[in-house]
Design goal:
Structural class: alpha+beta
CATH topology of one domain: Heat Shock Protein 90
Radius of gyration: 27 Å
Strand content: 5-15%
CATH superfamily of one domain: Histidine kinase-like ATPase, C-terminal domain
Number of strands: 5
Number of helices: 5
CATH class of one domain: Alpha Beta
Helix content: 40-55%
């Protein structure tokens, strides 16, 4: 420090004041920089979320339009009963469930039954009886439903599995408990999905960045504020894990 025997008191205090001003100014500028950086990041996150919402809304509107066109225009012109049944199945998959009439629990159970009937892949489900979806709006319930539906579609197309499963329960780690939904199969894992064949290791999050289906799932998870994980071991299948904060 300064030797007060060499620097007179006035000069010493002047230097201390300027040093103090410099430190305060530096701290204020640093805080401003951090604040602006956080604000820009929040704006980008908001814009990304809004874009995801618009994208998903457009996707759902297109699903409804195609379903109506198939049902009202194409189906009456098809004489073959097997083809008619196939078109009806496609229309059902495209149209969202009526959550005002059918609960999300029943919709997920019905989805598993339809999946088994369509593919021949066993898909038992366990949905915790006490699990409460009442705090989740219809749009958010649709996001969860579509994420499970896309997971089952990936199993049908890519896994080569003979068995899948759905588990929905409370996570029990928070209060109120989060909602945890896991869709698993016993197939080839992430390596079987196009664009993800280079994945190795336990967690496929880094690899799960390609494919329209998984991109849609990530967008829906972002809209929900849910945590989405793709967990896989080579040759031991894939688990899609969705954890939704229960407000």
């Amino acid at each position: 420090m300064f030797d007060e025997r060499i620097v007179n008191p006035l000069e010493f205090y002047t230097i201390m004041i300027w040093l103090f001003v410099f430190i305060i100014t530096f701290l204020m500028l640093s805080l401003c920089y951090v604040f602006l950086a956080m604000r820009r990041a929040l704006e980008r996150e908001t814009q990304t979320r809004e874009f995801s919402i618009l994208t998903i809304e457009g996707l759902e509107a297109e699903r409804r339009r195609v379903s109506r066109e198939l049902h009202d225009t194409v189906l009456p012109l098809v004489p073959d009963p097997q083809v008619s049944d196939l078109i009806r199945s496609i229309c059902t998959e495209l149209m969202p469930p009526d959550f005002a009439r059918l609960s999300l629990k029943d919709s997920l159970a019905d989805l598993c039954m339809q999946f088994t009937q369509k593919t021949g892949i066993e898909c038992p489900w366990v949905i915790e009886e006490e699990l409460d979806f009442s705090s989740i709006g219809a749009e958010d319930q649709l996001h969860l439903y579509r994420m499970v539906q896309e997971s089952l579609t990936n199993i049908e197309k890519h896994s080569g599995a003979e068995r899948a499963s759905l588990i929905a329960r409370s996570s029990g780690r928070t209060s109120p408990a989060n909602i945890l939904i896991c869709v698993s199969d016993e197939g080839r894992g992430l390596r079987s999905i196009p664009g993800l064949h280079s994945m190795s290791g336990l967690n496929g999050n880094a690899a799960a960045k390609t494919g329209l289906g998984m991109k849609s799932m990530r967008q829906r998870a972002a809209i929900l504020g849910a945590k989405l994980d793709f967990i896989s071991e080579s040759g031991n299948g894939l688990m899609v894990r969705i954890e939704l904060p229960n407000a």
